Amino acid sequence: MNWAKRFGIVILSLPIALIAVWVLYEIFGMCINHIATKNQTNTLRTNLESEISDIEIISVYSETGNTSGTGNHVDCMSLIMFSTEMQETEIKDCMSKYYVFDEWSCYVNKTDDGYYKIYINTSAPFADNIEGH
Fold first, then answer.
1. How do beta strands 106-110 and 75-83 pair?
2. Of 4, 72, 83, 128, which is most buried with the most CB atoms under 10 A?
């Protein structure tokens, strides 16, 4: 009778343990996704500062989550606004060794204020994380 009681407790505890493991996995994935976004943004900033000598960073913004609003996925999005005397084509040329500009997930635009913005959006390491739903 004692083994049946232990077996019953294990069977009843199993769903709670599985839910706890799933929640911890999702939290771990969220942390890794945020770290990936931070690394992407820092790398973008470093690349800009190494390639453009007269750059002045205006603002740095990053976001982790479903940035496009389409589907259930997680993105790593980085956006840096900066000023320089270089033209848009020159910026693309010097940054093309790091990034592929496709006008959707990676692009450079001149704003109405005269600043440039560079935008990068990549898939997160844990793209199917709860954060993207």
1. unpaired
2. 83
Tens-digit pLDDT profile for residues 84-97? 999 999 999 999 99
CA distance 62 to 41: 7
Please report where in the chains the tokens 């505890």 appear, as a residue: 13
64 contacts 110 by C-beta, under 8 angstroms: no
Nearest to 48 by CA among 33, 36, 35, 59: 59
User: How many residues are given for the chain?
Assistant: 133
**Measuring CA to CA, which residue among 48, 106, 40 is closest to residue 81?**
48
Query: Can you list the residues of the chain whose pLDDT is less than 50?
Result: none
Cβ proximity of 62 and 78 under 8 Å: yes
Round to whole Å and give the CA distance between 27 and 78: 22
Instruction: Give helix then strand counts, H and E, for the chain.
Output: 2, 4
Pull the structure tokens for residue 89.
Answer: 């084509």
Q: Which amino acid is at 72?
A: N
Q: Name the region of 103 (left: φ>0; alpha: ψ -120 to 50; beta: rest).
A: left
Q: What is the pTM assigned to this prediction? A: 0.88
